[in-house]
Write a structure and sequence with these properties.
- Keywords: DNA-binding, Transcription, Transcription regulation.
- The protein is α/β, with parallel strands linked by helices and about 300 residues long.
- Helices cover about 50% and strands about 20% of the residues.
- The protein has 12 helices and 12 strands.
Length: about 300
């Protein structure tokens, strides 16, 4: 039996799901939690897959599991297989008059309030039976999940060309950062400086994210440094609570606080944040099947941005 025959006869769906989950999550611990299995079981499955493939697909270390060049190529093929199975599943469900599978999308936490929520509400009001699952992910994980076929589409940021391989990006808008505080914060005065703002407890995005890179660029451009002891989180709920109830300063993408600013629930400090606009849009996989539900969602996202600029 040659290697190709051996691979095709012994590969199982559990191998593909284990591989894609690990590629998406970046660590075996989180991937095992996502799959609902133990870490040793996941490690065994990945070892079986690499043995079948005859190549190392991950470079593993204490920091996590990073795709090798062979792993990156395999991820594209694994995504096509899983996408084909999803299409087949929809066909079977349609033939048996079962409910259609929900549309599964991913979105950055900062897009949920001003963009995703009103679009979802509008579509469900038009079609009460319309089903959708929304996962909140960081941008790298979001792109990975779209590429692998786990997500139908993602609402995220444009990344480096090498990371966008196999993906399409449709621009929706450019987003900037804001420094926001509670409505009666002592920093709300005309002469406030960035140094003064950074002397207060600070909330900002975690290291490795685009908003964090832009925040650091802003701070460094003023000859300052990111304060020690700041809270780093992607959770809009936590950051909003810290800002409203405990006096924190929140350095945040505008879309996450747009409605709060319009309603005067939060206030933006009168400080310049020019030069930090990020392209944000719809991320899809090239040559992927496009169901009618996805087409309606994309059209609604475009219309939302036209009706209420973010």
């Amino acid at each position: 039996m040659n290697m190709t025959s051996r691979f095709s006869q012994r590969i199982r769906l559990r191998h593909l799901h284990a591989f894609v989950a690990t590629a998406q999550q970046g660590t075996l611990v989180r991937a095992a939690q996502q799959l609902g299995i133990t870490q040793p079981a996941l490690s065994k499955t990945l070892n079986e897959l690499e043995s079948l493939a005859g190549e190392r697909l991950f470079s593993r270390s204490r920091q996590g599991a990073e795709l090798t060049a062979a792993g990156a190529r395999f991820l594209q093929d694994a995504g096509r297989v899983l996408d084909a199975l999803n299409v087949l599943g929809r066909t079977v469900a349609s033939d048996s008059e079962a409910l259609p599978a929900p549309l599964h999308i991913g979105a950055l936490p900062t897009t949920l309030v001003s963009l995703v929520a009103p679009v979802v509400v509008g579509l469900q009001q038009q079609s009460p039976g319309w089903r959708i699952q929304v996962s909140t992910l960081a941008n790298d994980a979001l792109m990975m999940a779209v590429r692998s076929g786990q997500l139908t589409l993602g609402i995220g940021r444009m990344s480096d060309p090498s990371r966008m391989e196999g993906l399409n990006f449709e621009l929706l808008y450019h987003e900037t950062l804001r420094l926001v505080v509670s409505p009666h914060h002592p920093l709300l005065h005309a002469d406030v400086t960035l140094a003064e703002a950074l002397s207060w407890p600070l909330v900002l995005s975690p290291r490795g994210t685009v908003p964090r890179q832009n925040a650091e660029a802003l701070i460094v451009s003023h000859g300052l440094a990111v304060p020690e002891g700041c809270v780093e989180t992607l959770s809009v709920t936590l950051a909003r609570c810290l800002t409203l109830q405990y006096g924190y300063v929140w350095l945040v993408p505008y879309g996450a606080v747009r409605d709060d600013l319009f309603g005067n629930h939060l206030r933006a400090l009168p400080l310049p944040t020019q030069g930090m606009a990020e392209p944000l849009g719809i991320i899809t996989r090239q040559e992927a099947f496009t169901p009618p539900e996805q087409q309606r969602l994309v059209a609604a996202l475009r219309q939302r941005v036209l009706d209420v600029p973010v």
